[in-house]
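note to self: dont lose this again. the chain is below, predicted strucutre after it. 212 aa total, dont forget to put it in the shared folder this time
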Amino acid sequence: MRIKLVYDNTTIREDLQSDWGFAAVVETGSRNILFDAGADGDILLSNMQKMELDPAQIDTVFISHHHFDHTGGLAAFLAKNNRVALWVPESLRGVRNAASVNHVSEATAIDHNIFSTGELKGIEQALIIQTDKGTVLLVGCSHPGLGAIMKAAEPYGDIYAVVGGYHGFRQFELLKDVQKISPTHCTQVIDALRTLYPEKYIAGGVGTVIDF
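---
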């Protein structure tokens, strides 16, 4: 399984553009998933092109929550490829240009090893992927609280990695048993997490590729 960061506040390559927002392409072997869509469609599609990621190869789009920095690029992406299954929180309405639009309220299976936590606290869902190493958890901004998201993911196995935005996160002990962390985007405590958990820490930024 591989996660490629295509939209983030920082970049690791000069030819890729950073911007406030988040998006990642997740390659599981059975599905190619666009997780969130950043704030700007032109930036999203340009970064994907430069990372040799063809929008036509994406079969699933998963939107964590409705905020502009996670949905702003969605229309531009769907203009390139609307033959996708779109999974959005129950509260996100008005999206129609997709092969199927799935509004998620409760924990839901997307594939045999891919799940949504369901919409938590009326704002956000997270993506759960079961791997041989454990569960990989992708989060947009963690507005419900990372602790609440991790608790929702517990039934799917031990959490091996948490990738994405840890907005408002301060409960560092929650990550003591997690093997890999990649705090990105809106995480205010990236430096503290890198110092506290150097053996777990994976730096983010557009262009980052994480293999599990």
